[in-house]
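Predict the 3D structure for this chain.
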Amino acid sequence: MSTASKIALLKEMLDSAESNIRSAKQILGELTSATGKSQYTAMATKVGSLDTSGEKKIIEGVFDGQNMIGPDKKTYSVPANYASKSKLIPGDILKLTILEDGSFIYKQIGPIERKRIIGTLTFDEGQYRVIAGGKAYKVLLASVTYFRAEVGDRVTLIVPEIEDSEWGAIENVLPKEDGTGSLDMDDMEL
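Done. Predicted structure below.
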């Protein structure tokens, strides 16, 4: 077999392997997100409450990484800016007050136990992720823009301490190191 044929065969094999990996990731993502959603739905039915008796409606539920799941198993949209600035992580308990004029007011009332890990910000398949401890955690675009993070930056990520989660919250962007291995003080925010 000629060198050109071997190169063409290798390219074809790599393309096939990449396609298989993408398919496997998609199936795994579908399976884990379905499991995660049901986990937070079950949690919400246990810890959440619903009060629609007064002028305002009050709902307590569980944050799933993007939204709040109520005890009624409904999904309530949480503003990404609020979630990123409040550093919400999956499992946090929220109270939603829906006012007479239709305004939604969220308040974090029960933060879950947290741990901090350090990882690298990446962007893959239209989603920002932080690679840390051999796992890729999804992060909100609002967090990335709020901290002015860029792909390749090292970040401190907050994740649930006990439970495995596919989401995390960016706490800080770490200062870049210069070529000598020391921190570049010009890049540090004080």
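The two ends are 62 Å apart (CA to CA).
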